[in-house]
Amino acid sequence: MTALLSHRSAGPAGVAREESRDALRHLGPNWFAAVMGTGIVATAAAGLPLQFPGLRDAAIVVWALAAVLLVVLSAAFVLQWRRHPDTARGHQDHPVMAHFLGAPPMALLTVGAGTLLLGSDVIGTTAAVAVDWVLWSLGTVLGLLTAAVVPYRMFTRHRIAPDAAFGGWLMPVVPPMVSAAMGALLVPHTPAGQWRLTLILLCLAMFGLSLIAALVTLTMIWSRLVHFGTPPSGMVPTLWIVLGPLGQSITAAGLLGDAGPLALPQPQAQGLVVFSVIYGVVAWGFAMLWVALALAVTVRTLRARELGFTLTWWGFTFPLGTCVTGSTALYHHTGAVLFAATAVALYVLLVGAWAVVSARTLRGLLGGELLRPAPRTGV
Question: What's the whole-model pTM score?
Answer without folding.
Answer: 0.91
